[in-house]
Amino acid sequence: MNKPFLDKLRQIDPYVPGEQPKSTGTIKLNANENPYPPAPGVGEALRSFDAAALALYPDANGRKLKNALAERFGLRNTQVFLGNGSDDVLALAFQSFFCSETPILYPDITYSFYPVWCDLFRIPYETVPLDADFCVNARDYDRPNGGVVLPNPNAPTGRGVSLAFLEDILAHNQDCVVIIDEAYVDFGAQSAVPLLSKYENLLIVQTMSKSRSLAGMRIGYALGSETLIGTLEAVKNSYNSYTMDALALEAGAASVADEAYFRTVCGKVIATRERAAKALEALGFTVLPSLTNFLFVTHPNKDASVIFNALRQKNILVRHFRLPRIENYLRITVGTDAQMDALIAALRNIL
Q1: Backbone angles phi, psi at 332, to 5 degrees
Q2: What is the rounded distance in angstroms from the CA atom of residue 244 to the CA atom of residue 251?
């Protein structure tokens, strides 16, 4: 059958998320979710929410959550942008700031959604190779570009850079927008927030999916100058005048209000990460230094795909990227101590 319209459809390779288990009893360590529940106040906010309010549109400006975030970071609420998860925020940022014919730059091994957005929005880009140890070289970004995207810490490698390193990047790229993707920053890395007062072209993107255990609520946000945030708002309002639903706004504000719980949960994940890293090294794995809620590992005597499939047979899901340079690595989300003990026992058996 002739289908002449097919050549007019957008051709694109979509982002592929981690596998969702089809049965109960699976240890899910493949999506970098937090193994602990959100702050107690989140549950209370949801229980006390008046369902009748769902008949009305939510606050288009998200003022309650914006104000909470602005206060936490010492910013004005006009320096905060909200979106349905950090992916929504990043997609809008790509559309808002990368509008030239000069390629944007980001690492060759990083979040695999970046090239998807570039292809979707027809943004020219060049990937900058990480070195042999999967580290970023700041000097590689000292060249003409249409923008810079740098995750800190990086995913899936887990490596982070210092605040001085980030300022070095910004100092050499003041004629474009520099996006620092801080999805995992709360697990031990240095945030670029202190640099916001100095660099008007800096946009920081964070999420509540990881450190605040709210992946199911899809809450992301950006911090930046009023110039950048105003541009984001204008682009968003050009086709989607509402950011987040009313429940997400309440849950997000309740999470931000409980700083003590937030720090306790992050501390638990960090402690388990360090303990698991030592256990994996004892089994012969090479474990990259991680400032995230996951570990990036490889074994010299066992193919990553073999380990991945063997773990899957034992109902333990981890992430395997069949990509150049990292095809023999596994990304393992940090779960509870009990989950990581089960993983280590399974790996010992497999090896």
Answers
A1: -120, 115
A2: 11
DSSP string, 295-315: EEEEBTTB-HHHHHHHHHHTT
Chain centroid, CA 282 distance in Å? 29
| pLDDT band for position 7 (cuts 50, 70, 90) | confident
SS (H, E, C) 181-205: ECCCHHHCCCCCHHHCCCCCCEEEE
Closest-CA residue to 323 (of 11, 18, 17, 108): 108
Q: Is the pLDDT of residue 241 over 90?
A: no
pLDDT band at 15 (very low <50, low <70, confident <90, very high): low
Q: How many CB atoms lie within 10 A of CB 118?
A: 19
How many Cβ atoms are within 10 Å of 337's Cβ, its own excluded?
A: 14
Alpha-carbon distance of 58 to 55, in angstroms, equals 9
Percent of the chain with pLDDT over 90: 91
CA distance 265 to 187: 10
Kind and range of the H or E element at 72? helix 63-73
Query: Using CA atoms, how far apart are residues 130 and 113, in angstroms rounded to an integer?
Result: 18
Among 260, 261, 254, residue whose Cα is nearest residue 46: 254
For 189-230, write each residue's pLDDT tens digit: 999 999 999 999 999 999 999 999 999 999 999 999 999 999
Between the CA of residue 248 and those of 66, 67, 217, what are the distances in Å? 12, 15, 6
Please choose, from the candidates 41, 27, 6, the residue with its C-alpha nearest in 3D space to the C-alpha of residue 344: 27
Sign of CA dihedral 177, 17, 286, 208: positive
- Structure-token pair, residue 26: 């699976």
